[in-house]
Fold this sequence. Notes:
The complex is a heterodimer.
Chain A: E1 9-13, E2 18-23, E3 32-38, E4 45-50, E5 53-56, E6 61-64, E7 70-75, E8 84-91, E9 105-110
Parallel strand pairs in A: 1-9
Antiparallel strand pairs in A: 2-7, 3-4, 3-8, 5-6, 6-7, 8-9
Chain B: E1 4-7, E2 10-13, E3 19-25, E4 31-37, E5 43-51, E6 54-57, E7 64-70, E8 73-78, E9 87-94, E10 101-103, E11 107-111
Parallel strand pairs in B: 2-11
Antiparallel strand pairs in B: 1-3, 3-8, 4-5, 4-9, 5-6, 7-8, 9-10, 9-11
Amino acid sequence: xxxxxxxxxxxxxxxxxxxxxxxxxxxxxxxxxxxxxxxxxxxxxxxxxxxxxxxxxxxxxxxxxxxxxxxxxxxxxxxxxxxxxxxxxxxxxxxxxxxxxxxxxxxxxxx
Amino acid sequence: xxxxxxxxxxxxxxxxxxxxxxxxxxxxxxxxxxxxxxxxxxxxxxxxxxxxxxxxxxxxxxxxxxxxxxxxxxxxxxxxxxxxxxxxxxxxxxxxxxxxxxxxxxxxxxxx
Lengths: 111, 112
């Protein structure tokens, strides 16, 4: 199983760009990288998914270096409403391990 | 209306009682999942189902059972509830295994 490691917590201020890095040294060739966001007492919500290089959507960007041993979720100009827990998951599209959520990164955005 | 619904939203019960949590979805997905989340921790997979005839154990299936009554319905049962099963329970669906999952609002279960 591709184990992921994320910082336990991060702090930021409104308007700043936030980058959350996830390490996945044992990522396999067929593995994708997926990020979810979770607000207190709510179910996680899909943010973005990628395989290599860069993926961007209306919410975030995902940067994946050539060796794919890590990935960085980038949230541009965060607001207070971005305060949440962010989870990085790694696995192939048919794989069980992509269903494993770690402890995530708790992001606190301050005024 | 929500795509994934869970009932009840909150439940308080006593040790030894049998409890059933229900999940329904209108997304037409084949895959359904049950997770539990303890305070301050990530989600742990209890059971997952590829389709009506295919049910699989997750990380922490002991003490739980499931029933997939139809494509749209996936129930989680605690045969004899114990206090350390106090947690937030989430149901989720996906179109294919490990693709984007859509989560329900959660059921907060307290076992006294």
